From TrEMBL:
Root EC class: hydrolase
UniProt cross-references to PANTHER family, sorted A to Z: IMIDAZOLONEPROPIONASE, IMIDAZOLONEPROPIONASE-RELATED
The keyword Cell wall biogenesis/degradation is annotated on this UniProt entry: no
Species per Swiss-Prot/TrEMBL record: Allacma fusca
GO biological process: L-histidine catabolic process to glutamate and formamide
Protein name according to UniProt: Probable imidazolonepropionase
GO molecular-function term, one example from the UniProt record: imidazolonepropionase activity
Gene Ontology cellular-component terms listed: cytoplasm
Length: 438
């Protein structure tokens, strides 16, 4: 007779990469190298137990767990012999709701066009806006669902998702409703942090001033109404703060209007031109900023002081052949660094293992730093690190089971995540299980 029922027992693993075991919400500087990893003994593997709410209640050697839970029944038992267990990855920056690909622009960039020359000629974000405005809500949902399930299969269990291909009330709300539907219908696969990014570009027929007014006076009130009606939920506000797009003063106004509605400020800063976006973001105590290729020394110090998370997007550095952001300097200064895939029609990458590899190669991050940035610190950028981002008692059981001798293989074997990832557990339930291949 068992006196208790638990949801999940995963046993016999080779390694458990906890990331941290002391409850920090984020790691900085030298702490990012001190990854907490438990390794099995020759005759004793490792286990994780989750209760019926999907919360981790025990982590340890199989022998200890067997004794402790001898009178407990498990709804699901997973034999993780020869596997390593990592926390589910957290992708801190994506644009996953859109119709129409931009493969033709990839060709143009290979021939020498720049991101901004395409954007200013009416392509780039504008091209995607045209297609997204025309797409039905169901079509956008179908596209999003497929992308999110592919994101899950590459090990991500929490993802930040932006609107921003509407640039008007109607289509921004359509995108937010599509995201809300995914948040509700796919919650047993992936958690979504929703970002309103109505200020992603200046619509073709507007000036920066009129576009700013439209975001503050029309889009944000419409978002507020829709939230009140229970149709959508929004966690973060974003602006593409860039020379020739929304510049400092208007970005600040939009971010502050979002803050008044209770959103976290999490925006695109200093990507292509050293505008001083990150200094501005630090001055208004933004929670997180992305890109930062052109960040100033002063902003690095200010971000470190505020514990503002710097979200690095190596796929964009790669695809646009940008000078990488000064990540080593930022880590040394104490900025909490996170990683995101930046999945969008310009940077078509859904996989955090690929992102970690690129972060190591292009931004000179270590393996440990890349993993911390893709788990705990990415969760922190979304205000979610008390629940996600590490394997600790009290956190949600979001786990990636890897068929590899050690965890580092998920970064080292570039593009092999489909082969390596055997299972993804979301909130204590098996959300993805690899089927045996030939
Ligand atoms: N830089 C602005 N936004 C996106 C790109 C969006 C797009 O090109 O569609 C980014 O983060 O890279
Ligand atoms: Zn982006």
């Amino acid at each position: 007779m068992s006196d208790k029922v638990m949801q999940l027992l995963v046993h016999s693993a080779r390694q458990i990469v906890q990331v941290t075991s002391s409850g920090e919400n984020f790691l900085t500087g030298g702490q990012m190298k001190n990854l907490k990893v438990i390794t099995a003994k020759p005759d004793d593997g490792l286990s994780v137990v989750a209760d019926k709410t999907g919360t981790i209640v025990a982590i340890g050697y199989d022998s200890e767990i067997r004794t402790k839970f001898r009178n407990t029944a498990f709804e699901r038992t997973v034999d993780a012999s020869d596997l390593c267990i990592l926390p589910g990855f957290v992708d801190a920056h994506t644009h996953p709701v859109w119709a129409g690909d931009r493969v033709h622009e990839f060709r143009m960039k290979l021939a020498g066009a720049t991101y901004m020359s395409i954007h200013n000629a009416g392509g780039g974000i504008h091209y995607t806006v045209e297609h997204t405005r025309r797409a039905s809500e169901d079509e956008l949902y179908r596209l999003l669902r497929d992308r999110l399930l592919r994101i899950l299969r590459s090990g991500t269990t929490v993802v930040e998702c932006k609107s921003g291909y509407g640039l008007n009330v109607e289509t921004e709300l359509k995108m937010l409703r599509v995201l809300e539907r995914a948040k509700r219908e796919l919650s047993s696969f992936i958690d979504i942090s929703i970002t309103f990014c109505g200020a992603h570009a200046i619509p073709k027929d507007m000036t920066e001033e009129t576009a700013t007014r439209e975001v503050i006076e029309e889009q944000l009130p419409a978002v507020a109404r829709s939230i009140r009606l229970g149709e959508i939920s929004v966690d973060n506000i974003d602006v593409f703060c860039e020379k020739g797009v929304f510049e400092l003063e208007n970005s600040k106004k939009i971010l502050e209007a979002g803050r008044e509605m209770g959103f976290r400020m999490n925006f695109h800063a200093d990507e292509l031109y050293p505008l001083g976006s990150a200094e501005m973001g630090a001055s208004i105590k933004a929670e997180a900023m992305s890109h930062l290729e052109q960040i100033s020394e002063k902003a690095i110090q200010e971000m470190a002081k505020n514990h503002c998370v710097g979200i690095i997007l190596p796929t964009t550095v790669y695809i646009l052949r940008l000078e990488p952001p000064p990540v080593r300097k930022m880590i040394e200064a104490g900025v909490p660094i996170a990683l995101g895939s930046d999945f969008n029609p310009n940077a078509f990458c859904l996989s955090m293992p690929m992102v970690m590899h690129l972060a190591c190669m292009l931004c000179r991050m270590s393996l440990e730093e890349a993993l911390v940035a893709s788990t705990l610190n990415a969760a922190c950028s979304l205000g979610l690190s008390s629940k996600y981002g590490s394997i600790e008692v009290g956190k949600k059981a979001d786990l990636v089971l890897l068929d590899a001798p050690t965890w580092e293989h998920i970064v080292y074997q570039f593009g092999e995540h489909d082969h390596l990832i055997q299972m993804v557990v979301k909130n204590g339930f098996v959300a993805y299980e690899k089927t045996p291949s030939l």
